[in-house]
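hey can u check if this looks right to u? its 263 residues, i copy pasted from the old doc so theres a chance i mangled smth
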Amino acid sequence: MAKYHIIETGYFMGDGGTMFGALPKRYWQKRYPCDEDNMCKMAMRCLLIEAGDRKIAVDCGCGDKQLKRLMFYRLHDLKELTSEIRKRGVHPDEITDVVFTHLHFDHCGGGTLTDEKGNIVPAFRNAVYWVSRKQWDNYRNPMLLEKDSFFPENIEPIAEAGQLTLIDNDRNICEQVSLKLFDGHTPGQIAVFFRDGKEEIVFPGDIVPSSVHLAAKCTSAYDNNAALAVEEKQRFLNEIKSREVTLIFSHDAYKSSLKQHII
């Protein structure tokens, strides 16, 4: 039987104006708390899906390879992803697939780790890692706005190990799990759709990173194309319109999921 596990890999502090973009503070603060410095606690949430003979990790948090470089974000309560997967009764070597919604450090950093010899290697040595070709090309030739969000050690070892698969279009990776592409926040971001029996679970990544971002005008300063991000979010919401789904939010520290019926 198919099932899923929500995995928390830790938190960072994000500036409210950055996280909620064009939305005025007096609006978003009623829905999402911040401290006296306008900093908001943000999660780095991942998903583990067990579907038949497939065991699929969706996003991997930031890992621990760049902690000094990421001090600005005040990372805290970090948890090692492979250890958290073991707690769910799955060995890391059993992971068959890893889906990176996109290649920003807070979503893919835990996909590689430093081994006992000091080499950076894939964290899941038997897995296929799924990334969109548009996101890969964007990582290789990043916009100035995104450049500091990409770290080669998070992704190059996977490509070098021959474990990277690039997709150009929407596709299924098994009967219960489909990958769909959306632009705006970053080119070729993947949203993961999963059916667990009668329940439909959707992991939209940074298309809708928090419950506040369900608002049409709520963007993020990290969106590399804000206007397109709004259009693509509306396309995503239209995709799930008139059916009941459970959304898993990647960054909402206070609401990990929401059963959403959009009419």
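The first helix runs from residue 16 to 20.
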